[in-house]
Amino acid sequence: MLDILKAMLFGLVEGITEWLPISSTGHMILLEEFVKMDVTKEFWNLFLVVIQLGAIAAVVLLFWEKIWPFGRKKKSGTFYIKMDIMEMWFKILVACVPAAIVGVLFDDQLDALFYNSWCVALALIVFGIAFIVIENRNKKSTPSINKLSEITFQTAALIGVFQLIAAIFPGTSRSGATIVGALLIGVSRTVAAEFTFFLAIPVMFGASLLKIVKFGFAFTGMELAILLVGMIVAFLVSILVIRFLMGYIKKHDFKVFGWYRIVLGILVLAYFALV
To answer: Are 120 and 251 in contact (CB under 8 A)?
Structure first.
């Protein structure tokens, strides 16, 4: 029962930190230092990834009209394809390619090399500084891309390169890296956030499927309960956080998240230097 409560706590943290550009990995590493579940290391590595499916479900629910490419005519009842949404999905797939290749080929090696407190802390600080610098630069410029339809295949590929950085270095934050990349090449905050949310759907689903296949679907009853509870809590919290973020960035920039990342990175470095 205690592990179920802990799963709820991890789901809460996942739901908050997955969509805010502050690194869910960094927060999970810190939380893991103080809250440990009585599970195997293999299941724990699976849990940290697959819990993200709950967060993804929130995106699907909130943005269904913007991501579902099929429609049905009211009078005739015939189905049709929404070509603008279908084109967006092709652009998303283009953006996924770099991280997908690296993830499939080097997932275990990258975890062994970079999944540690020091790398996570440095990534938090570096991208925190990047947010502040880019937002200060953007004060004097007007975004050139203000609609999802204005994102070209070239722009999507460039955003995908930034997502690759997040795939290599834990703590960078997948949403943080893609938003920084999008802002840097002239995408508005709202469009950058939405594209990042949609980009997460195939990325997180693919990463979760890869982890489950490696694990072998051999869950105990308690492991399955822990996983489901974590996902459900992440789903519910993600709905609130995504709505908050989309409202927040209409009137504010991302600098507050940059400062938060820097402070958190310093705290992580200090904590692990002392223990």
So the answer is: no
CA 259 remoteness from chain centre: 19
For residue 49, give its domain range.
2-274
Please report, for residues 6, 48, 212, the alpha-carbon distance to residue 218 in angstroms, rounded to integers and kept in the order given.
Answer: 21, 17, 9
pLDDT over 80 at 19, yes or no: yes
Question: Residue 77 — very low, low, confident or very high, per pLDDT cuts 50/70/90?
Answer: confident
- Residue 61 CA to residue 90 CA, distance in Å, equals 21
**In the 3-class helix/strand/coil scheme, how is 89-150 assigned residue by residue?**
HHHHHHHHHHHHHHHHHHHHHHHHHHCCHHHHHHHHHHHHHHHHHHHHHHCCCCCCECCHHH
Query: How many independent structural domains does the chain possess?
Result: 1
Q: How many CB atoms lie within 10 A of CB 89?
A: 14
Q: What is the rounded CA–CA span in Å between residue 240 and residue 224?
A: 25
Tokens of 24: 């869910």
Non-local (6+) Cβ contacts of 224 within 8 A are none
Cα–Cα dist 253/68, whole Å: 29
Dist CA 7 CA 1 (whole Å): 10
Structure tokens at 69: 């490419």
